[in-house]
Amino acid sequence: MRDKPSRATRQLRAWLVVVTLVWILLGVGLAASDSRDYDRLVDEAGATDADFAAVAVVLTVVAVLAFGVLFRLTSVARLRTGAVLVFLVLAGYVLLGLFMTSAAGQASCPSLGFGSTHCRSVQDSYETGGWVIFILACVSAAFVLIFIIVAGALKQDVPSAAPSTPGGPPPPPPPPSPVSQLVHDLKELAALRDAGILTEEEFQAKKRELLDGNPPAAR
């Protein structure tokens, strides 16, 4: 039987979902970006624009997978799985940010083929973008790591209904109450009278015995 997520589990899930959505949007933006100036910087660093876009797509796909795991949250174990996936995505963005800053530093204006002023502007903006991604990814990864530790400390969510013990005998039925037992016995006597087994006098005598054998509160 499925476990019902606790309040603490749902709160951690909400924070992780927000973080995941932010990085999904960022990944889509990076994968769809098309700038010839930045393409030259990437080429100068020994990669291609297609490689850069492929990395962004892979990270976005993993982030979407993590979002799916967190969206269908059913237990603490599933929360930890989603958090680990988000952490891996953020680790990838940390490396991607370092690559962007390194590419901006390695590029030389003559090899890029445009003026020094424009070249420096492109390098600065690309390097700034890399540092922004690196710092945001590091901060987000730190928070997600805390979430993973907290999720590991959470107790397993309490099931919504206690499952029966596998392989064990079923629990005995609760004993009938005195009143319900009396009603049952009276019905049996009435059935015996209607079937002709008991006469009216015998029925009344048995009925009186049953009623006298019960405490007044049960009458």
TrEMBL record:
This is SHOCT domain-containing protein. InterPro entries: SHOCT. Pfam families: SHOCT. Residues 186-211 form the SHOCT domain. The lineage of its organism: Bacteria, Bacillati, Actinomycetota, Actinomycetes, Jiangellales. Residues 166-178 have a biased composition (Pro residues). The chain crosses the membrane at residues 12-32, 52-71, 83-104, 131-154. Residues 160-180 are annotated as: Disordered. Keywords: Membrane, Transmembrane, Transmembrane helix.
